[in-house]
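Progress against Task 2.4 (sequence-to-structure conversion) is shown through the following example record, which the project officer requested during the mid-term review.
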Amino acid sequence: MDWLENLFFEQTPLQALLVLGLIIAVGLGLGKLRIGGISLGVTFVFFAGILAGHLGLAIDPAMLSYAESFGLVLFVYELGLKVGPGFFSSFRQGGVKLNLLALAVIVLGSLMALAFSFQSGQNIADLVGVLCGASTNTPALGAAQQSLQQLGLPVGNTALACAVTYPLGVVGVILAFVIIRKTIVRKSDIAPAGSTEVNHTYIATFRVTNPAVFDMDIKSVSALSHCHFVISRLWHDGKVTIPNSDTVLAKGDRLLAVTTDKEQPELRMIFGTQEEKDWNKDDIDWNSIDSSLVSRHLVVSRPEINGKKLGSLRLRNSYGINISRVSRAGVQLLATPDLVLQLGDRLTVVGEQKAIDNVAKILGNTDAQLKDPNLAVIFIGIVLGILLGAVPIALPGLSSPVRMGLAGGPMIVGILIGRFGPKFHLVTYTTRSANLMLRGIGLSLFLACLGLDAGAGFLDTIMRADGLIWIGQGFLITVIPVLIMAPVAMRACHLDFGTACGMLSGAMANPMALSYANDTLPGDNAAVSYATVYPMTMVARVIIAQILVLSFI
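C-alpha cells generated for the chain above:
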C-alpha cells in the first residue's frame, strides 16, 4: 500500500491535484447541508481545507501558491464581468448613496481593528487577518499577504487569524439581521415584491389631451420634454399602428409608452391623461392586445451586431417594427437609439409577424450561437487585470506603494470589459451557467488552498489565548458596524430593509447573509443593492488591508 500513501503524501503535481480535488469535492458536498435554515455552500470548502491541513495533508508550496492565485483571479474577474453591464447604470438609481453607506461599514470595522491593535499591543498583521475573517473577505487577505511578502514578513499568523474568525464572520451578519428585524424594523420597512429595481422600465398608456402637443410629431415632443420614452403602439381612429419619429399626434390618440419610474409623471403632464390599467405585470399577454401586431423577444447572437448602436441598424424605418425595451443581465433598459447592443441582449420587438421574422434574421436570434464562451476575451481580461493589479500606486504617508493586487486588478478590468468591451467589438457574453461555473471553480480553488495553508496550525490557535481573543475581536468587528449602519441606512437614508440588508451583505462580502435576506424578504431589492456595492467595497477592502499593513506594521 506504499503507492497509496505516496499518492497522498509525496508532494508531486499529481498529488496536488488529488488533494485539492478531494478537498473541493468534500467541501461542496458538505456545503449543501442546511443547519437552522442556513447553508454555507462553497464556503465549506475553506473548512474542508482546514481539516485536511490539520490531518497533515500538504502540497508543494509553489503549486499551492499558483492554484491559490489562479483561483482568486478567475473568481474576481468573472464576477466583475458579470456585474459590469449594470454596474455604472446602478449609480443613477441611488448607487452612490449605497456605496457610501457600505464604505462607512468598512471604515468602522477598520477603525475597530486599529483600536484593538493599539489597545492590546497586538501586531497589526494579526488584526488585519481578524478583519478579513470577520468580513469574510478572502481577497483582502490575499492582498494583505502580498504586502507582507513585499516587506519580507511572515504571513502565517494573518491567515490563521482569518481562519479562526471566518465562521463567526459568516453567521454574525445573519445574527445582526435577526436582531435588527426584531428591534427596529417596521412593517413599512419591508418593501413589497418588485417595488424597486435598478433601471426598471415602466409601461403605461396615455391619452393625448394636452392641447400643447396636438399636431406635433413624436420627434418634436421628445425634444421638448428631454425625457426618455419609447412609444410601442399608437391607436388612432380605432386603428393600431407602429409610430415613428415623424408620426403626428392628434387629439384623443391613445399611446402605449415605455419609460422609467422617474420619468413617468412627466409623460403624464406632456400627453395629458394616463389610464389606470397596470401594464407592468409579468402575466400580460401582449399578443392579445390587438390582432394585427405581435410582440416577440429576440436575442442578439450575431457577432457583427455586437458593439453597434441600436439606431444605426435602422430597424424601425426598414421593417416597420418598434423595439420597446432591452433586457441585459436581468436589467431592463430603454431601447434608445444610442444604446450599444451586446451579444446576449434580448430585445422586445413589436410589429407584424413577417417583419419580426426579418428582424430576427438580422439579429441572429439563435441561443445555440451563444453557448460557446469566448475564452480569448477571458484570458485577455485576466492578463490586463494582473497588469493593472501590479501597478504601484503611491499614497502620501506610506513608505511603500499600494497595489490593487490579484484581487482588485482583475475585478476592475472585468467590470470595464463587461461594460465597455462591446464598444470595441469584444465578445464578452457568456451564458449564466458558464459564468457561474468559472466563478465556482476559481473560488473553490482559492478557498481550498487558503484552508489547506492555514489548517496545520488551526486547532492549536483556537486552543491558545490568542486564538480566543481573535475570535472575540472578529465577532465584534462583524456585528457592531452592521448594527450601527442599519439604522442609519433605514432611518436617515430611507432605505427599505431588503435594500439595507443587501448593502450590508455586500459591504461584508457575505453571500450567505444575502441568501438569508433573499429567503426571508420579498422581492429582489437585497440582490440588486448587493451587486451595486460589492465591486466597489471589494476593491476598497483590498486597498485598506494593504494600507493597514504598510502604515502600521
